Structure formats: C-alpha cells, structure tokens
C-alpha cells in the first residue's frame, strides 16, 4: 500500500511539473511585437463601442482586411456596411450597393489612416512613428504584449483617441479611448493554425 501511495505522489508531482512547464512555455511563447511582420491582415472581428450616456455598448461584427495601403472594414452585423480606405479616399457601401465617397477632401487624411491601420495590423511600429508616439513594451515580458499609440497631431488625437494594441504572435485586440469618454474594444478572431 505504501508503495502505491509513493507512486501516486510521484505521478502527481510529475503531472504538476508537466502542467507548470506547459504554462511557463505558453507564457513565454509570445515573441516581441517588434518581430511581428505580417504582409496582410484578414480577420473577423467583434466590436464593442461604449458611448458616453449609454448604459450598454453598441455591438457589431465583421471582417477587417489590410493589404498594401488599402484597409477594408466590413461590418456584417447588425448592418452590412463596407468601408474602404485607400490613398484616394474613403468610400462606403451599404447592403452591397454602390460605393459612395465619404466626406470631401478626405484623400490625404484617408491615406494616412489607411497606412496607419495597415501598419498597426502588420506590426510596422517604426512606420507609425511619423503619426504616433509609439510605446513598445520595455524589454521582453512573458505572455501577451501591448503597444500604446498616441497621435502626435491634436486633431487626429480627438478623432482617433489613444490606441492600445494587444497581441502575442499577432494582433489579437485593439482598445481605443477618446477624450470625450467614448471607447471601443475590438477583438479579432484567432488565426487558424
């Protein structure tokens, strides 16, 4: 009986060691955000928008695609709205209709936003320093990382707010906090293995 109890204790200790090693490996498995170099970004998202004065968030879901200097934000629920940001401007189509230009004179701003969004999703932090103060994590902490982005231009800061990008091997979520109290949380679907 004593031998069986001793074997059980050893098995339990070995299981605990294996579990601890697995947890430690999972925590240390996140590479630095500076090594993130995706060429494109094509992921589903779930968004929660918290607006001042509203008790519950506005919920939406869809797909975000970033290629070159083009960003497509395609909200599928609760409405089908496809917003395309390119160097030539911002267009939007509703329920698969014709793409209509959004605002006038948006070309320069749209190009900046498109480049910024694509760079953020690809982890091109150096490119973002032209428009943002970029705060990368100090050293390499274990587990998930976060990168803070604060617009350098006050007008852009009032529109975009302060952005925090979270991830591990790629971007997993983005939080945006504006000075008026509005905030957003965007959670991206996991990358398929």
**CATH uppermost class of the largest domain:** Mainly Beta
Count of discrete structural domains: 2
What characteristic shape results from the CA principal axes? Answer: globular
From the coordinates shown, what is the CATH architecture of the largest domain?
Answer: Clam
Described by strand count, sense and barrel closure, the largest sheet is: 11 strands, antiparallel
The CATH topology of the largest domain corresponds to outer membrane lipoprotein receptor (LolB), chain A
Q: Which structural category fits the helices and strands?
A: alpha+beta
> Largest beta sheet: what is the strand line-up?
6-5-4-3-2-1-11-10-9-8-7
CATH superfamily of the largest domain: Lipoprotein localisation LolA/LolB/LppX
Cα gyration radius (Å): 21 Å
Using DSSP, what is the number of strands? 11
Question: In terms of per-residue confidence, which ranges show pLDDT below 50 for 5 or more consecutive residues?
Answer: 4-28
**Residue-averaged pLDDT:** 76
Write the layout of secondary structure elements.
Layout: H1 2-28, E1 40-50, E2 58-67, E3 70-77, E4 81-86, E5 89-94, E6 100-101, H2 107-122, H3 125-128, E7 132-135, E8 145-151, H4 154-160, E9 162-167, E10 171-177, E11 183-188
Antiparallel strand pairs: 1-2, 1-11, 2-3, 3-4, 4-5, 5-6, 7-8, 8-9, 9-10, 10-11
């Amino acid at each position: 009986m004593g031998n069986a109890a001793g074997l059980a204790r050893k098995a339990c200790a070995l299981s605990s060691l294996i579990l601890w090693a697995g947890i430690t490996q999972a925590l240390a498995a996140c590479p630095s955000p500076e090594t993130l170099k995706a060429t494109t970004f094509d992921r589903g998202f779930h968004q929660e928008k918290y607006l001042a004065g509203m008790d519950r968030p506005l919920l939406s879901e869809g797909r975000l695609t970033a290629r070159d200097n083009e960003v497509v934000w395609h909200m599928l629920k609760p409405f089908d709205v496809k917003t395309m940001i390119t160097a030539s401007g911002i267009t939007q189509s509703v329920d698969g209709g014709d793409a209509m230009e959004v605002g006038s004179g948006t070309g320069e701003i749209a190009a900046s936003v498109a480049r910024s969004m694509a760079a953020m999703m690809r982890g091109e932090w150096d490119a973002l320093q032209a428009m943002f103060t970029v705060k990368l994590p100090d050293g390499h902490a274990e587990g998930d990382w976060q990168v803070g982005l604060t617009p350098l231009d006050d007008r852009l800061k009032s529109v975009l707010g302060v952005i925090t990008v979270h991830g591990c091997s790629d971007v997993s979520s983005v939080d945006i906090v504006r000075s008026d109290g509005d905030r957003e949380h965007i959670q991206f679907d996991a990358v398929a293995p």
